[in-house]
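User: quick one - fold this with nickel (II) ion bound?
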Amino acid sequence: MNQNNTANNNQYSIAQLGHPVLRKIATRVEDIPSPESQQLIEHMMLAVAQAGGVGIAAPQIHHSKRMFIMCSKPNARYPDAPLMKPTAIINPEVLYFSKETEKDWEGCLSVPSMRGLVPRHKQIAVRYFNQQGKEQQKELTGFIARIFQHELDHLNGLTFIDQLTSSQDLISEVEWYRQFSK
Ligand code: NI
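Assistant: Sure. Structure tokens for the protein plus nickel (II) ion:
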């Protein structure tokens, strides 16, 4: 998920909608402490920071592995976004979804210049491994739960466009700014 679709970067090429890597089911990470896995985490951290995003998944930098970064922080677009330390999420699973869903705007570094009003479960319980390979279990709500669901979709070959309930919920970023930014 991104905050700044216009920030293309030179160092990391981000797979764009239509690239086959975004449609693959990513494979589990078997060796989290390995230099390969640790380096991939570092690359994702750098790529998402460079792009000004709130999350990025490994397939977006052309590695079809089950890991993503969440790095929510408040900004003009998401003034109520909680501040969190960039966190690596590895081999994630959702243990529980609340029945209640809510729609909110999302963007994606792989879907430039567009915004979608995407329904997501308000609360989820999740299990994953952290960068040190330690199992974590958490309950997430609101915006953080939204980022988690958006990034998990990337590991299953989906983008936010696949979750829209109406094509009318997809708008240009220019229009989004015109209508919704303060
Ligand atoms: Ni995305």
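One thing worth noting: The first strand starts at residue 55 and ends at 57.
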